[in-house]
UniProtKB/TrEMBL annotation, chains A, B:
PANTHER family: DNA TOPOISOMERASE 6 SUBUNIT B (PTHR48444)
Keyword DNA-binding assigned: yes
Pfam families reported for this sequence: HATPase_c, Topo-VIb_trans
Subunit architecture: Homodimer. Heterotetramer of two Top6A and two Top6B chains.
Binding positions (ATP): N49, D81, T102, K103, G112, Q113, Q114, G115, I116, G117, G118, A119, K437
Domain Histidine kinase/HSP90-like ATPase: 35-145
Compositional bias segments (type: Basic and acidic residues): 518-536
GO BP annotation list: DNA replication; DNA topological change
Matching NCBIfam families: PRK04184.1 (NF003218), top6b (TIGR01052)
CDD domains in the record: TopoIIB_Trans (cd00823)
Protein name: Type 2 DNA topoisomerase 6 subunit B
Lineage of origin: Archaea, Candidatus Micrarchaeota, Candidatus Fermentimicrarchaeales, Candidatus Fermentimicrarchaeaceae, Candidatus Fermentimicrarchaeum
Protein family per UniProt: Belongs to the TOP6B family.
EC number: 5.6.2.2
Length: 547, 547
């Protein structure tokens, strides 16, 4: 044991470090891994911030992204929006400090939620090129503010230089930053694809991309309807943990536990609070919430789970909407068939409201071309309208697609059919698996809900596919009948005497066509064919009589 | 535009928050998602800390884990090791503060590296049960320290209470904590499986588990050899980014750029530094490193990439070793066939040294039973001997297995064969995709290296499988020959007269058996069979003569 090292010896190395140092060393956790992915992450962070800001400010977004290759091998990214801008007083902390922002603590639906992304880009520029990020912000009040920004890695504080303020009409945010270790390409994980998918889920946004070649792509605004502003909501009783309840109770201004519960939680009427009080007689509901003990809070949380609750209010959730999804899918994939389903809002972890929109597209350009050049099933994942481009393997949406027995929907192998499954997870809190925000955690209630939404549209697709087969069957039958039409009309013409066979043939063809235009190929239809034949027969007789 | 909200209005909501608040809201990022996974994460964080501490202190680890279901639905986890302990002065920050520790800033191979895990467990206990974590630490100096610990969520500082110090012989760390929202089960993602896999990759550790049922499992120490202590290494020139070079240069005590380079980086001889100086004539290598500009550093980093370098020193990497891996796989899977490969150390991102150990096991209990009850290929992933149990879909090891064309190795479908692929990624810095540390980022050079290691053992397996087929062919031939042995011996006996047919049959069987015992089924062998037949024939004649 002579070789053993003492614990005190080891702990001489003990150090504290900042969250910036942490992410500097673990940059892949912010999505900065791989040259193509890193560039997509940069554009993703900036555009989600722009879209969120416009949505909150009630502005129809116009976003321009420009990517340039510089002679020294660096890549310059410029992004400009027409959003509300960031006040100069907050710009530093918004873009040059991690764990700070307007979104983290608010219980409302937004694309960003972590207060890391923007500052992460500033950090990534600085650690790969040593350069600051140039910012321009205008609130639309006739003044424009510009500055250079870096992050102090040790203290997690913004370092601002070259500030200027001048008069001008610019409203919005413009960011100009240089990066090394990134690469522009048009692969399925690149910036072009990312913006295309963003446009699909945000038809109210006008997005322009200028590629390093100078080529310009405009993803046109398809809808002038400004999405409803996101609203903050009260937490639902079923979503609350004991820890949260204690925390909120100790911070509240309410004087009585019962009124605190009613004021704080959605769907908590005074009748419900009374019901709850009866279930936990050991807790005095008149007590000051600041004195709520852990064991009391735990008893309340357990009692909450035994009661029935109205689902959380749906008005805080902002789905894309079935019409917009269908329009986008038809527009981009030109499929034979599309079906969209929108599930009712549900809760996960007991009480975080969420809802799932799913769609399926079949045929046309649906699906993707796999590495062997064959058509293969594709999964298009979104969370709050943000395309999820990476880490699909560990995402709840992928898991849901995998858990479906596709044979039951007449899809022999998902990987071998021209089918695109689209799913958008909508929530005030998206439980991402990592800070890179590319995959939704595979919790059972989430996976199940996504699965149900997809199963609904898969059933619609199955009806379509079966109809198509029936249609093909009918088509075959029609061809057989048609084959006899000519012969029949000759015979009829013979019988009729003065009638030309061409006219009779035309009439017969018309009748058959009319019959097969209708989608339903039922027994009733078959009867009508019989009727039609009888009519022809009658006509025959009429003509005979005239003879 | 009357409905638009002003930027100043929105930024009234701007707030800063602590890293603890961040992980409290995003607990899934620490691996606390799902009841089974959360419990595995807890045991994982505690045991990796114990194994690291023992390794650094040169102690053969003995770790005891106990999981108990409490009457109130909580789960109690107790873990005790015989490690070096944590000095009372540091215990608070080690287990009650995030982003602090002995590992983050040191360039050496360890299981933990982030300084979040232990404090993450303290936080998870506190937010699910409101209770503190009980700690006992002894450095082996006759004194024992105990305390209760929580984290102050707002300030990321430890909250310590009920401290006692007393005399005693305890050396090591003992942690007792209660959790809600966790569940013990024996699934492939549970604690039992996690500890079994840990034991596989750490044969020097003795690990005991007591399940909630009271059942006790001992994973016996299989090797008394204490692994070599991890050592800190100098960074390799190829791994350095411009940002790192500027940072280190500005902090160094060296007075000249040239000596700074030689003192700081591995494989940087003064001859190499001279070579470098010639490549970047614009930079004065006699200048004070504190004055190194970004553009100069960038020029040096670019020049470094054009030179040839000796690979980083391998002595800092601590692989498990082929013998230990083979022993472990044979022990746990009882396979027909095992092959282990250990690749030479390589670098990723230009200069972080890493190496890959891979193994393949075929037959026996290799592979896994899939949901349809069929035998299926299995991937056992490790990073620095730590089993990776979750998020396999986005891991470099899984990616490497997927990228292999298994048909080339006579495996028609990986998912349908009794085969286990084992891979251990060994590095001073494991690039995990997330804070949950369950998947290695899929960077090309990493995936490729893992793939090569697996392809090597796959080739060995192919040789084995082909041999087996040849063996089966031979077996078939042997059976055919044997079918005629009886008949032949009767005939020979008839011809020989005094010889009993049993004796002749015995001789013939012996001859055939001897021939087929040999593994090589070559043309030479076939000739020997012919020879053997001739001998029999000769014997026949001899006997005839005697007649």
């Amino acid at each position: 044991m002579g070789d053993e090292v003492n614990g005190s010896e080891i702990f001489k190395e003990f150090k504290e470090y900042s969250v910036v140092e942490f992410f500097k060393k673990n940059r892949q956790m912010l999505g900065f891994a791989g040259k193509v992915r890193s560039l997509t992450t940069i554009v993703h962070e900036y555009t989600t911030n722009s879209l969120d800001a416009c949505e909150e400010a009630g502005i129809l977004p116009e976003i321009a992204v420009k990517v340039e290759d510089l002679p020294d091998g660096h890549t310059k990214v410029t992004i400009q929006d027409n959003g509300p801008g960031i006040p100069p007083s907050h710009l530093g902390k918004a873009m040059g400090m991690m764990l700070a922002g307007t979104k983290f603590h608010r219980y409302m639906q937004q694309r960003g939620q972590q207060g890391i992304g923007g500052a992460g880009c500033t950090l990534f520029s600085q650690i790969t090129t040593g350069k600051p990020t140039r910012m321009r912000s205008g609130l639309g009040d006739g003044k424009v503010y510009e500055c250079d920004m870096k992050i102090d890695v040790k203290s997690n504080q913004p370092l601002i230089s070259n500030q200027v303020e001048y008069l001008g009409n610019f409203r919005g945010l413009r960011i100009e930053a240089e990066f090394a270790d990134v690469n522009y390409d048009k692969s399925e994980h690149g910036v072009y694809e990312y913006l295309k998918r963003t446009a699909m889920a945000n038809p109210h946004a006008q997005i322009t991309l200028i590629e390093p070649t100078g080529e310009k792509h405009v993803f046109q605004r398809a809808s002038d309807r400004i999405p409803e502003k996101p609203v903050e909501i009260q937490p639902h009783p079923l979503g609350i943990t004991t820890g949260d309840l204690v925390d909120i109770a100790h911070r509240t201004d309410s004087r009585k536990l019962s009124s605190f519960l009613c004021n704080t939680f959605s769907r908590m009427s005074s009748a419900k609070a009374d019901e709850l009080a009866k279930l936990v007689p050991t807790v005095n509901f008149d007590k000051n919430p600041k004195d709520l003990k852990w064991s009391e809070a735990e008893a309340i949380v357990n009692a909450i789970k035994t009661l029935k609750w109205i689902a959380p209010p749906t008005d805080a959730l902002r789905p894309i909407g079935p019409d917009q999804i269908e329009k986008a899918l038809r527009n981009i994939l030109s499929p034979e068939f599309v079906s969209v389903s929108e599930r009712k809002p549900k809760v996960f972890r007991g009480g975080v409201p969420f809802m799932v929109e799913a769609a399926i597209a079949y045929g046309g350009n649906a699906g993707r071309t796999n590495s062997e050049g064959e058509r293969s099933g594709d999964i298009t994942r979104y969370a709050n309208r943000v395309p999820l481009m990476f880490d699909g393997g560990s995402c709840a949406i992928t898991e849901a697609v995998k858990n479906i027995d596709w044979k039951r929907y007449d899809i022999r192998e998902f990987d071998k059919e021209p089918v695109t499954v689209f799913a958008n997870f909508v929530s005030v809190h998206v439980p991402y698996t990592g800070t890179g925000k590319q995959a939704i955690t595979t919790e059972e209630e989430i996976v199940d809900e996504i699965r149900y939404a997809i199963m609904k549209v898969a059933r619609d697709m199955q009806v379509y596919l079966r109809g198509k087969i029936r249609e093909m069957d009918k088509e075959t039958k029609k061809k057989i009948i048609m084959r006899y039409v000519k012969e029949l009309s000759m015979d009829l013409s013979d019988l009729a005497g003065d009638s030309t066979p061409q006219e009779i043939e035309k009439k017969l063809v018309e009748m058959v066509e009319t019959k097969y235009e209708r989608i339903e190929g039922s027994a009733e239809e078959a009867e009508k064919v019989e009727e039609a034949k009888e009519e022809v027969g009658e006509g025959e007789e009429d003509e005979k009589e005239e003879e």
